[in-house]
Write a structure and sequence with these properties.
This protein is an alpha+beta fold. It contains five helices and 14 strands. A hairpin with a 5-residue loop joins strand 2 and strand 3. Helix 3 packs across helix 5 and helix 4 crosses helix 5. The longest helix is centred in the last third of the chain and has 15 residues.
Amino acid sequence: PRILWNAATQDLTILAARVRMRDGTTVDAEKNAVNRTTPFALDLAPDYADWQETIVTHMGVEKGCVAELHYVIADRNASPYLSGVEVFGAEDPTVERTLVVKLPPRMSLAFAPLNDGMPAPVEGTGGVWAWTVRDVPGRTPFAGGVWEGDYLPAVCYSTAASWREALEPIRADVSSKTGSVPPSVSRAIREAVRDCTTDEDKALAVQRLAIESTRAVSVPYPLLAAPARDAARVYDTGYASALDGAVLLMAMLKELG
């Protein structure tokens, strides 16, 4: 399995990684079976390289065995809005999968199932919430098409009181990163709209320029709430998350006037 986490702001602790074989023997993963790497989607996007994947290689795997993995991802500092989307699926059939969310003091949790296959959570003491899904069928990975959260059990959760409260800091941050663009971008904008006769045509031409100027990078969900990069940096690096792409487009449209 691959565990995604932010090495700059979080700590990952593997509590258990073992295989229970058919004859009852338990085989624990060795130290060298746990390895950290950069996700494939981010290997050419160094500005996002704080996001890492820890790969756990189970030992003693055989037909009919059961693999167990128990880990904790802990934020070093409480974020303004603890939030996430968890899809309860894997390539292998899963006997039981549990998500436990522990809130910082004096915070409440809002959550919503994303389809009909998600059971209700159990609320514990001390701000602990837990979701458990059993007997999840294996899935075949594929690129593109339907998002797996549309057909597998999934939950979205946040400590924000409303969408407006959660999105306002993101809006303010994005606006602050669109102040100016390099001279080379200004020249590219003038060239892109040179033959345009209407404001709509100009806006569409600038949108095409923004899309063609960067390579789209599929980033982890939490990165959408992280501080955006400024427009000049997005343009210079030539790659962008959806949020950084929006920053570049807004900056270009401002430059257009």
